[in-house]
Design goal:
Elements lengths: L1 E4 L5 E4 L3 E2 L1 H4 L2 H14 L3 E3 H8 L5 H19 L4 E4 L3 E4 L4 E3 H10 L3 H7 L14 H31 L3 H14 L4 H13 L3 H19 L5 H16 L43 H4 L4 E2 L2 E2 L20 E7 L3 E2 L9 H13 L6 E3 L1 H10 L2 H4 L4 H11 L2 E12 L2 E10 L5 E11 L3 H16 L18 H15 L3 H14 L5 H12 L3 H13 L6 H14 L3 H14 L4 H12 L3 H11 L11 H13 L2 H14 L4 H14 L2 H13 L4 H18 L1 H16 L3 H4 L2 H13 L3 H12 L10 H13 L3 H17 L2 H5 L4 H12 L3 H13 L6 H5 L10 H7 L5
Parallel strand pairs: 1-7, 10-12, 10-13, 11-13
Antiparallel strand pairs: 1-2, 2-3, 4-6, 5-6, 8-9, 13-14, 14-15
Length: about 850
């Protein structure tokens, strides 16, 4: 048995011969062996992917010769039985003759044998191995190395919790420290280490660990520890002074945001952020006014986004005189128990300003996003007093409100200033507010009134607050802001609980109920959202303009009414232009089949200003809109720009692949597929993108498209049987077979997933629609009509709200089946119905193979043609 030890320094050994030094002396061939072991996992790897990975600069004949020589060498070193092939296309290792510690490590994790997994994890994957002139392999190693390290860190964290629960604090500290070392910027691991050190009585070490962690966070990520971490540190520091014991209950596994991988909890693997068609989430108005907007027709509130990898553009040069940015107030002596007070004050002031005519307000989320994603390297020399100007300029605000909170005994003072962004000069002082520390919301409300009064002489606006909402209780506002922070950190369900608790604490305060409505929509619970909407609509008269437009937007979404949602976000953008709300005008215009308008809006906004900096959905909308216009060169340029910023994002790789397919560039498509196969994309992602590529090719270049589709079908044929039988792979292969008019084969692939159409069917619209389309293409009109009927029955059983957020999916799939049955009139009627119910105009609609013949029919072509205003 050949043993491959890839965790740590590479070693390959055999019981009788020991370490195989001759093999280890040849890095490229040793790397090839490890890649076959890890990527193949006992299955096969295509030869083409190996050529691109290890000999990217060689022509095809030389690369193939080099691969043959390498395999001959490996067989001679390991034994003929160790490596086997499947025809001329694929190579693999035989698990009966080869073992790999990465396999054993993964198996131990799956079985939750954490201590065994940690013993196997000797160090970073292939530590010290360098292969010259193989950048794709180096990237593969880096990605796998990071993934395996994070898995080991989670195992160490779970084991630390187990040992802490049993009272073995010495071992718990050791394991918690290992978890932090393996995943150094994961704050849940850091908090766990602080907690177990605290419980063990070594509080000075806990504080030293935190000082080191915070310094590294600021140095390498230009970030500060999260409020939850600061709260733990404050508690440790307080016990250091008072010498009181900590809570001795077992350490719980806390969830934290990994600052390097965007808005996902620590328990979510990085790959989940690489979905082929991810739910697109939008910055909202909730910190400013609880108003939120929708993208891909799934709405969210505020979300921290991972920064792009390329440099940021210069700040906005044009300032709007009546646009105001309210920055979070700073606290002279931070109070961990009330760490959100400065954000709460800025939020309440912004909410008041949003009620004034003639004033544009910048949502606080936009300011927070701007601060988080500005080019920090260029800000390193800025003073604290200068930094606010950089933020205000970036969002185009001609004026800014900034201030401080400080304490004297039991009195809290709130001080603010109204400043001119361009010069930094003081426009108007704002009278200081002083209140007892048990009356904080009274003080915040007074400060808001005084800021509005200070603004009056500088603008032509009305200075009273129309239908003003009374300030909520401190407890309700605290939970509301905590809900926002929790949602920003990616935990929708926990945020919903906080918003519900906030609403229960003060039933007269509408913002947490608006936020909870958005949460229900994110969780796909349209009925719960509709129930909240009923009570909010009754209170509409006392809401501000942003909240009112939010209600209209949500109501439009629940009804599948895109024009209503569009009108609402237009009103929001008038109050707060240059934000995600204005981006939403472009997105909804594209969905409503107005791609020229979408391109105009998106190009004017650009990807490097304010909230849009680091906002990945921008690139989906821009490439989709250019695609719908037939501007495939512009689409490709935008896709490549996005790839420069997000080189590891599979969805964005799909944008480039779609553009190259529409352009008919076979060589570029082949190169993109090689890169895709060399990436960490899952098998399902690779299958989905291949089918998308072939579909686009057939739609735009029918003659060449069939050859492309045949190649995709052959790729499915080459997959191991277990992988090929996965439900997602079966569905995608059925799509590919339909492109080749192999309906009977497609039907055979689907049959294990669908059975027969029955009244009790629980399949998705998409799967029922595909089943009906395949049956129709195979000439079985009876079964095709059966699936059409089942789709209708399912839709009619849905509540109006649930039907609304299905976005016309039921009539869309029935339209496809009708087209396959040759009923052009019914297909057109149903597609029109789908558009009325909110069906978004996507590239997939344009390229749908069932519509190929209909696209030449004038009435159908007119429905698909871009609309101009």
């Amino acid at each position: 048995m050949i043993a491959i030890a890839a965790l740590g320094a590479l070693n390959v050994s055999e019981p009788t011969r020991g370490s195989l030094a001759t093999l280890l002396a040849q890095p490229r061939r040793a790397a090839l062996l490890v890649y076959l072991a890890i990527e193949g996992e006992g299955e096969f790897v295509s030869r083409d992917s190996l050529l691109a990975l290890f000999w990217p600069d060689s022509d095809e004949s030389r690369a193939k010769a080099a691969l043959r020589q390498a395999l001959t060498f490996l067989r001679r070193s390991l034994g003929e039985q160790a490596i086997h092939g499947r025809g001329d296309d694929a190579i693999g290792l035989d698990p009966a003759h080869v073992s790999c510690d990465v396999w054993t490590f993964q198996q131990a994790l799956t079985a939750q044998r954490d201590d065994e997994a940690l013993a196997l994890y000797r160090g970073s994957l292939l530590d010290g191995l360098v292969v010259d002139d193989a950048p794709a392999f180096e990237q593969w190693v880096a990605n796998r190395r990071e993934t395996l390290a994070r898995k080991a860190a989670k195992a160490a964290a779970r084991s630390a919790d187990a040992h802490s629960g049993r009272g073995d604090l010495e071992r718990a500290v050791e394991l918690a420290r290992r978890a932090q070392t393996l995943d150094p910027f994961n704050e849940s691991h850091h908090r766990r280490l602080l907690t177990v050190l605290d419980r063990s009585g070594d509080r000075s070490s806990a504080l030293r660990e935190h000082d080191t962690f915070a310094a590294r966070l600021r140095s390498e990520l230009e970030a500060d520890p999260a409020p939850e971490t600061l709260s733990v540190v404050a508690a440790v520091r307080a016990r250091t002074i008072s010498n009181t014991p900590p809570n001795t209950s077992p350490v719980m596994s806390a969830k934290a945001i990994d600052r390097t991988s965007g808005p996902a909890t620590a328990d979510i693997p990085p790959s989940t952020s690489r979905a082929i068609a991810p739910p697109v989430r939008t910055i909202s108005w909730l910190i400013a006014s609880a108003a939120a907007v929708a993208t891909t027709l799934i709405i969210t509130l505020a979300m921290r986004r991972p920064p792009a990898t390329s440099g940021s553009a210069a700040p906005v040069s044009g300032l709007v005189a009546n646009r105001i940015a309210v920055l979070p107030l700073t606290e002279s002596v931070p109070d961990s128990a009330r760490s959100t007070l400065g954000i709460m004050a800025a939020d309440w002031i912004t909410e008041g300003l949003s009620r004034l005519d003639g004033v544009e307000v910048v949502p606080a989320t936009a300011l927070l996003a701007t601060e988080a994603t500005l080019d920090t390297a260029s800000q390193s020399a800025l003073t604290v007093n200068d930094r606010w100007q950089r933020v205000a300029r970036d969002v185009g605000a001609g004026m800014a409100v900034r201030g401080t909170i400080y304490r004297e005994g039991r009195t809290v003072h709130l001080q603010a200033q109204l400043l001119e962004t361009h010069t930094g000069r003081l426009l108007r002082p704002v009278e200081r507010v002083s209140v007892p520390d048990d009356s904080l919301m009274v003080g915040i409300d007074r400060l808001r009134t005084r800021v509005v009064a200070a603004l009056a002489p500088l603008t032509d606006t009305v200075t009273h607050l129309r239908r003003a909402i009374a300030p909520p209780t401190y407890e309700a506002y605290r939970d509301y802001v905590a809900g926002l922070t929790t949602f920003v950190n990616g935990n929708t369900r926990a945020a919903l609980s906080l918003f519900q608790r906030s609403a229960a604490a003060d039933s007269s305060y509408p913002m947490p109920r608006i936020a909870a409505t958005i949460m229900h929509l994110n969780l796909n619970d349209a009925d719960a959202a509709q129930r909240l909407m009923a009570s909010l609509t009754a209170e509409r008269v006392r809401l501000g303009p942003l909240e009112q437009s939010t209600l209209d937007m949500v109501q439009g979404l629940l009804a599948g009414n895109l024009p209503m949602a569009y009108d609402a976000v237009v009103r929001q953008a008038r109050i707060a232009p240059g934000t995600i709300g204005e981006y939403m005008i472009g997105e909804l215009a594209r969905k409503m089949n107005r791609p020229a308008e979408a391109v105009s809006v998106l190009r004017a906004l650009g990807p490097d200003r304010g909230e849009l900096r680091g906002w990945r959905p921008y690139w989906q909308e821009l490439t989709f809109a250019e695609h719908l216009l037939g501007n495939h060169d512009a689409e490709l340029i935008a896709a490549r720009d996005a790839m420069q910023r997000y080189p590891d994002n599979v969805a964005i790789a799909g944008y480039e692949l779609r553009a190259q397919s529409a352009r008919g560039d076979r060589a570029a498509v082949s190169a993109a597929l090689v890169r895709l196969d060399a990436s960490l994309a899952s098998l399902g992602e690779r299958a989905t993108l291949r089918v998308m590529m072939a579909t686009e090719y057939v739609a735009h270049h029918p003659d060449d498209g069939r050859a492309v589709a045949r190649a995709v079908a052959a790729w499915f044929d080459s997959l191991p049987s277990a992988a090929r039988d996965a439900p997602l792979i079966r569905r995608q292969e059925a799509h590919a077979l339909l492109l080749l008019d192999r309906a009977a084969d497609a039907r055979a692939r689907l049959r294990p997933l669908i059975g027969q159409p029955t009244a009790s069917s629980t399949l998705s619209f998409a799967l029922m629609g595909l089943a009906g389309a395949v049956a129709a293409a195979d000439g079985d009109s009876v079964e095709a009509h059966g699936w059409m009927n089942q789709i209708t029955v399912r839709a009619e059983a849905m509540t109006p709200a649930a039907r609304g957020i299905s976005w016309g999916e039921s009539p869309y799939w029935r339209s496809i089946i009708a087209a396959r049955l040759g009923d052009s009139t019914l297909a057109l009627t149903l597609l029109r119905e789908a558009r009325r119910e909110g069906l978004s105009m996507e590239p997939t609609v344009h390229a749908e193979p069932a519509f190929a013949v209909l696209r030449r029919w004038p009435p159908f072509a007119a429905l698909l043609a871009p609309v101009t205003r």
